[in-house]
Amino acid sequence: MSGPARSSAVIIGASGGIGGAFEAALIEEGAFDVVHGFARSRSGAQHLDLLDEANIAAAAAHVAKGPPPTLVIVATGLLHEGASGPEKALRDLDPAWLAKVHAVNAIGPALVAKHFLPIMPRTGRAVFAALSARVGSIADNRLGGWHGYRASKAALNMIVRNLAIEERRRNDRAIVVALHPGTVDTALSRPFQGHVQAGRLFDAERAALQLLDVIEDLKVPDSGKLFDFEGKEIPF
């Protein structure tokens, strides 16, 4: 990764497995003057709750006081919580859970974009990336199930496409993308790792480095698309 003189990077969800690995890798690399790591579990200026727009706005204002962010990664996601999790059939649909996964997986990243894209540079290369998932691809869906998670990630993908179109008018070198990290050995995927093919379960550090390589190789025409950890485009 590289950034221009006096630039910063922002990781939303830095207390999670992949988010923490993003933060550690960017700090170690030293290409940015400042690496901001935000998470709901952190305190003070590093606290960010995706369900609280005022808190998101405050975090963006904090970042805006320093070097402009040329890289923002939203590394958050909700797949299961307590007894709630991916639905196997229509009979499992619950309106409260559907609202929660959409709030975290789609609305939260959209609000991050609302407050962080305006403080990113108006000229030159800048990347806003949000972690999505292959199961959010409508074209790739052949198994069904996981209604809320699939739908919320599909919604995120549409938001990314919309953001890319609008951001291009502000900065024609900006890139807005969704990224699929694969199955990563984190708390999010742990209950569902039993069916993962051998060699396809990645540790968080490897996943983060793979995606940073993908980000590094992105070109302006890639904006508004979904890419996997190998840099291959996934159809929406």
Question: Would you kindly provide a written description of the structure presented here, covering whatever features stand out?
Answer:
It contains five helices and nine strands; from the N terminus they run βαβαβαβαβββαββ. It is of the alpha/beta class and 236 residues long. The chain has a single domain (8-234), classed as Rossmann fold (3-Layer(aba) Sandwich), CATH 3.40.50.720. The protein has a seven-stranded mixed β-sheet with strand order 2-1-3-4-5-8-9, sandwiched between helices. A two-stranded parallel sheet has the order 6-7. The radius of gyration is 17 Å and the shape is globular. The relative contact order is 0.16.
The sequence of SSEs as H and E is EHEHEHEHEEEHEE
Binned, the helix content reads 25-40%
**CATH structural fold name:** Rossmann fold
Q: Please give the CATH class.
A: Alpha Beta
Q: Main sheet, how many strands, which sense, barrel?
A: 7 strands, mixed
Portion of residues in beta strands equals 15-25%
Please give the structural blueprint.
Layout (H helix, E strand, L loop, with lengths): L7 E5 L4 H13 L4 E5 L14 H12 L4 E6 L20 H22 L9 E6 L15 H24 L3 E7 L2 E2 L16 E2 L1 H14 L8 E3 L4 E2 L2
Parallel strand pairs: 1-2, 1-3, 3-4, 4-5, 5-8, 6-7
Antiparallel strand pairs: 8-9
Helix pairs in contact: 1-5, 2-3, 3-4
What's a quick, concise take on this entry?
Helix content is 36%, strand content 16%. The chain is of the alpha/beta class.
